[in-house]
Amino acid sequence: NEGFYKSMDGGESWERVRTPHGDNHDMWINPDDPDIWIQSNDGGANVTLDGGETWSTQHNQPTAELYQVDVDDRFPYWLYAGQQDNSTIGVPSLPPTSW
What share of the chain is helix, strand, coil (3-state, %, to 5)? Predict the structure, then answer.
C-alpha cells in the first residue's frame, strides 16, 4: 500500500499521516468536524479526534483474517491460528454439552 496523506489547502500540498496499521483501505471524515476520522484497514478500524495526530488502539478489536489453523491433542482441544497482520491466537474449543 501507499502512504496515507492529508491536505489542508485543497490539494496544493500534502502531509504524510502515520496510522496504526499500514494496510489502509478506506476513510470516513466527519462532515461536521474534519478532525474526526475513521480509518479502516486489514486489522479493523481506528478513530482519530485530532486530524491524525493520535489514534485509537488497534489491539482491542475482535477482528482477524486467519491464514492457517491447527489444533492440539488436549481435551477440549485448543485451536491455534496465524492472523493476517495481527499476530497469532490460541483459544480453547468448547466441550460438547451432551453426547
Answer: 0, 35, 65
Task: Please give the residue range of the domain that contains residue 87.
Answer: 64-99
In a domain, 56, yes or no: no
- In a domain, residue 33? The reply is yes
CA-wise closest residue to 29 among 49, 14, 9, 13: 49
Q: What percent of the chain has pLDDT over 70?
A: 84
Q: What is the pLDDT of residues 50-72, one digit of tens each?
A: 999 999 887 777 766 667 778 88
- DSSP secondary-structure letter at 95? P
Q: How far apart are CA 53 and CA 50, in angstroms?
A: 6
**Contact between 34 and 49 (Cβ < 8 Å):** no
Instruction: Give the total number of structural domains in the chain.
Output: 2
89, 81 Cβ separation under 8 angstroms: yes
Kindly report the length of the chain.
99
